[in-house]
Amino acid sequence: MADQAKLPDQAQPAPQVQEPDTTKSEQPTATETAPAPEPVTEPAPTAVASATEAAAPAAPEPAAAPAETTTAPAPEPTKSEAQAEPEKKDEPSKPEYFMKTPALEQLFDKLPTILSNAGHEEMWGVPLKHDAADIPTINVLIKFLRANAGDLKAAEDQLSKALIWRKENDPIALADASKCSYDAAKFGGLGYLTTYEREGKGDLIVTWNIYGAVKKFDETFGDVAEFIKWRAALMELAVQELKLDQATSVIDYDGEDPYQMVQVHDYLNVSFFRMNPNVKAATKKTIDVFSTAYPELLREKFFVNVPAIMGWMFALMKVFVNQNTARKFHPISNGANLAKEFPAGLAEKFPKAYGGSAADLEGFARTPALKEVKKEEPKEEHKEEPKEEQKAE
């Protein structure tokens, strides 16, 4: 027992604690993987060593270093960036035809103002809309832009004038047989419309102006306003056949335009050397009105049965129209050669007088409504017999 009591006071060597191998117990860094510690065989601790270890406070465990491979959170967007981001995502892309032709988009942006100032929204049967997806509207704008060689201001002015003219004259009503008809004595046989089917290219629309059929030039062309109404009625019938309001594809600004017609002017038996002044006035007014109100609707214009020496007439016409229209003029001295200007399958459908094998235009072609107008014969003045007194005098 005494020995046991003295045991704590005896100077005993401190228990040897094996120094840990720092190369093995060192905490692994974030980018390195700590190797597994090698097994160490230690002697069983004595009671004193156990007591000492129990009395020693437990060493705090070192905090694990954060892994360097952790991705840092993205900084929160600022208020301005957060507001701008949805706008970029929701912004609709421009139609290809606006990107290809910037002037077209600019004319489209001006459309509401143009329509408001003109007080009219219809063009060639198309209700113009400020809708970039409305193909008929876009095609109308392309025609006015092409007619002015891409000049935005000129196209805007012409579109405004054309809308005002349609508002004042109502050409759709002029072509409506239930609303308007024209003097058969003045305009009978003077103009026709034919439609020819073509495979893969749509219908070919042709208007025929037979000036050789005029019986009395002073009557037909004397009233210029009446002649313009009749001529506009014929044009509107052809425009209706183009079906611009049913267009499903946008015209290629630099390509072919499928919404155009052919015009034939026949001058058989018409004297150019003694041009009637009424004819000159009506011709000039027609060119002025049609070049403004019907741009880019003409594909080709053929002047048939015209003497070759009458080149001055075409030079005069080119003064009043733009170069794009003038290049479409084709004079032909012999009307029978007209069919040769078209594919064989189509040429056969033309009247015989123009090189085809079909009947004359009077037999099947359309024309504005005509009516017989009875002219009042001038009344004879009734002279009273003088009285007896007057006789005597």
Automatic annotation (TrEMBL):
Protein topology in the membrane: Peripheral membrane protein
Main location: cytoplasm
GO molecular function, one term: metal ion binding
InterPro entries to which the protein is assigned, alphabetical: CRAL-TRIO_dom, CRAL-TRIO_dom_sf, CRAL/TRIO_N_dom, CRAL/TRIO_N_dom_sf, Sfh5
Pfam family, any one: CRAL_TRIO_N
Signal peptide: none
Keywords attached to this entry: Cytoplasm, Endoplasmic reticulum, Heme, Iron, Lipid transport, Membrane, Metal-binding, Microsome, Transport
Biased segments, Low complexity type: 43-73
Record-linked SUPFAM superfamilies: CRAL/TRIO domain, CRAL/TRIO N-terminal domain
Positions with biased composition (Basic and acidic residues): 85-94
Reactions mediated catalytically: a 1,2-diacyl-sn-glycero-3-phospho-(1D-myo-inositol)(in) = a 1,2-diacyl-sn-glycero-3-phospho-(1D-myo-inositol)(out)
Stretches assigned to the CRAL-TRIO domain: 226-362
Protein's cellular compartments: Cytoplasm; Endoplasmic reticulum membrane; Microsome membrane
Region (Disordered): 1-96, 369-393
Cofactor(s) needed for function: heme b
One annotated Gene Ontology cellular component of this protein: cytosol
GO biological process terms held by the UniProt record: Golgi to plasma membrane protein transport; regulation of exocytosis
Family: Belongs to the SFH5 family.
Record's function text: Non-classical phosphatidylinositol (PtdIns) transfer protein (PITP), which exhibits PtdIns-binding/transfer activity in the absence of detectable PtdCho-binding/transfer activity. Regulates PtdIns(4,5)P2 homeostasis at the plasma membrane. Heme-binding protein that may play a role in organic oxidant-induced stress responses.
Name listed for the protein in its UniProt record: Phosphatidylinositol transfer protein SFH5
